[in-house]
Amino acid sequence: MAEPEFTATGVRIGRRLRSLTRAGQIRITGGRLELLTSYGSEIDSAPLDEVRAGKPWFGSEDRATAEVDGRRYLLRLGGQGPQAGPPAVRQFLDAVRRAGARTT
Q: 59-102, pLDDT tens digit by residue?
């Protein structure tokens, strides 16, 4: 199995006003983005050329948005450890851009 290009745990994943999980996972591997629950069940996934990621205009620095097949998710990467918060958001956005550039 290939080594993941990006992994984050303890991620709050939501759609609109609904929280889908408070301790989810984000994984980028093999040119795909996967949003997972804390139990490892898949919330959504798509090839990176179909994913748009960015930062919301409002909110704190530890948030990012991901649009997967037209569905917008709000990701709060404020989990545990030294790579939580804003550094994790930058790494996530960079990983999406790098992997998306390789697929095109």
A: 788 999 999 989 999 999 976 555 667 788 999 999 998 876 66
User: The tokens of 102 are what?
Assistant: 């390789």
The model's pTM is 0.86
Of 22, 1, 3, residue with least CA distance to 95? 3
Q: In 3-state terms, what secondary structure has residue 69? A: coil
Q: Tens digits of per-residue pLDDT, 32-42?
A: 999 999 999 99
CA–CA dist 30, 5 (Å, integer): 8
Residues composing the chain: 104
User: Among positive and negative, which fits the CA dihedral 52, 81, 42, 27?
Assistant: positive
6-103 to CATH, choices 2.60.40.1120, 2.30.29.30, 1.25.40.20, 3.30.200.20: 2.30.29.30
